[in-house]
Specification:
Elements (H helix, E strand, L loop, with lengths): L16 E5 L3 H12 L3 E5 L3 H8 L10 H11 L2 E4 L2 H5 L4 E4 L14 H13 L4 E5 L7 H10 L8 E5 L9 H6 L4 E4 L3 H8 L8 E4 L1 H32 L3 H9 L20 H14 L5 H25 L6 E5 L14 H11 L3 E5 L10 E3 L3 H5 L4 E4 L11 H7 L4 E4 L6 H6 L3 E4 L13 H6 L13
Parallel strand pairs: 1-2, 1-4, 2-3, 4-5, 5-6, 7-8, 9-10, 9-12, 10-11, 12-13, 13-14
The structure holds nicotinamide-adenine-dinucleotide.
The site of nicotinamide-adenine-dinucleotide has 27 residues, from helix 1 and helix 5.
């Protein structure tokens, strides 16, 4: 495997004609932002509803700042949308593959969308082309894909596959595109690496490496983030058991620059379209390589128990879930996005309904179709007549809820803040029992003193110790 060095000298990008395949969170953001950088971008989308929206000037996903960029470059003609891969690939030397790579039922990655998109692009190419995989894929995929599509290209047309994984965060995708922590380009040919790296400004931090390394940078990054979240939840559970202050403990831990505070917030577990699937993909790859990923597996197991623990907490606060009315605030997998794929909030709603509760849900942006769940437009409407209210997504607007108004509308006095956005004291003063993850109402923690005392016994019996 050649590790290639890539040096870019110029700050401005050389305008290039690019085809982007897949107009989802990654593809649409990349297409609009690459247009903004000066490239001519032809975006191909097979989903008729998504395409109709885009062709009609609408943005089918919620992503701050994206509408402005799409509108600007669609009207200038620098950004076009179609379902015609042949037309879009004509004369194009770089095609970004931004299609979904969802998990199969067994947790292994489903790469069929990628295979189809790459085959169609390779067959349509009229000139030598680099297929650039932005989708998150297991190490080895780009090399395999090159073999897979090789036979589909026209005679005389060379199809190469390059890895350029995407690291954007939903809800701030446009910002992340223009302020990347790093651009990772995996290619075995230095010329190709330079061509792909040259799509972006030279000042952006670049990691140029082999294809399988680039793919693993992405997998390992998401696995580490998943581990961090599961660890934070484990510490929060321990804080709860010990009567320690979770925010201070995790805040104190995160101030260590070797650790960092991001992703140390306790919550209902990680979800979304990336972390769960990339974690299970990492585990599958590690196992197939004969290197079982024990840390990653532990993070996955810990995450699986998060929802169970949360539901048990709500049930214990209410006595039973059967027949109770519960307001669930938040459906998106995190604040700032409309994405509900693998959302812990949606899983919570389904579990509560399955256990006989009547759920009234609210989210500022996200919408779901869940049987027996009514979605209302206002959080107070969701709370009206409810026995309990659960905050499941950390939208900032829930922080502003008026405790007195909530108290008036609700029948019960239980609030479970699974994401730690609510201020505890005002709710207590309004008469609520507030539960959280590592905060709010906790059980007795006196036994924590016994073990350290026991461990001190070798130093002689304590003389005067009065225990609580
Ligand atoms: N969403 C994120 O935050 C994020 C971040 C980094 C990486 N990724 C990775 O990027 C990839 C895409 O993620 P996403 O969230 O944008 O997915 P998405 O489902 O929102 O978008 C994928 C799009 O590709 C389209 N598509 C599928 N096959 C096609 C084909 N043959 N031709 C044209 N269009 C086709 C789909 O209709 C869909 O609109 C995944 O591998 C994901 O893991 C996602």
């Amino acid at each position: 495997m050649n590790l290639v060095e890539c040096s870019r000298t110029s700050e401005t990008v050389e305008p290039t004609r690019i085809c982007v395949i897949g107009a989802g969170y990654v593809g649409l953001t990349a297409a609009a932002c690459l247009s903004e950088l000066g490239h001519e971008v032809r975006c191909v989308e097979v989903d008729a509803v998504r395409l109709a929206a885009l062709s009609g000037g609408e943005i089918p996903i919620y992503e701050p700042g994206l509408d402005e960029l799409v509108t600007r470059h669609a009207s200038s003609g620098r950004l076009t949308f179609s379902d015609d891969v042949a037309g879009a690939m004509d004369g194009v030397g770089v095609a970004l593959l931004c299609v979904g790579t969802p998990p199969r039922a067994d947790g292994e990655p489903d790469l069929r969308q990628l295979g189809r998109a790459a085959t169609a692009a390779a067959a349509a190419a009229t000139t030598d082309v680099a297929l650039v995989v932005k989708s998150t894929v297991p190490p080895g995929t780009c090399e395999a894909l090159e073999l897979f599509v090789g036979g589909h290209a026209r005679e005389g047309v060379r199809v190469s596959v390059v890895s350029n994984p995407e690291f954007l965060r939903e809800g701030r995708a446009v910002w992340d595109f223009f302020h990347p922590d790093r651009v990772v380009v995996g290619a075995d040919d230095p010329e190709l690496a330079r061509a792909v790296a040259g799509l972006y400004p030279a000042s952006w931090p670049l990691v140029a490496c082999s294809r399988r390394s680039a793919e693993l940078v992405k997998y390992a990054s998401n696995t580490f983030l998943a581990v961090k979240i599961s660890f934070a939840n484990e510490v929060a559970a321990l804080c709860e058991a010990l009567g320690a202050e979770t925010d201070k403990v995790l805040g104190g831990v995160g101030l260590d620059e070797r650790i960092g505070g991001a992703f140390l917030n306790p919550g209902p577990g990680f979800g979304g379209s990336c972390l769960p699937k990339d974690l299970s993909g990492f585990i599958a790859v590690a196992e197939s390589a004969g290197r079982p990923a024990e840390v990653a597996r532990a993070a996955q197991r810990a995450n699986d128990t998060s929802l169970v623990t949360l539901v048990a907490k709500i049930e214990s606060a209410l006595g039973t879930l059967d027949g109770r009315t519960i307001a669930v605030l938040g459906l998106a997998f995190k604040a700032g996005t409309d994405d509900t794929r693998f959302s812990p909030a949606v899983a919570l709603v389904a579990e509560l309904v399955g256990r006989g509760a009547n759920v009234r849900a609210h989210d500022p942006i996200a919408r779901v179709v869940e049987p027996n769940v009514s979605q209302v437009a206002d959080p107070y409407e969701a709370a009206h007549g409810a026995d309990a209210l659960v905050v499941a997504t950390g939208w900032a607007q829930y922080r502003e809820l008026d405790p007195a108004r909530l108290r008036e509308s609700m029948t019960g006095h239980v609030i479970v803040d699974a994401v730690g956005v609510l201020a505890i004291e005002p709710l207590r003063e309004a008469g609520f029992d507030l539960y959280g993850i590592g905060r709010g109402l906790v059980t007795s923690f006196a036994p924590v003193l016994w073990r350290p005392l026991e461990w001190m016994l070798d130093a002689g019996q304590p003389s005067e110790v009065s225990l609580p």
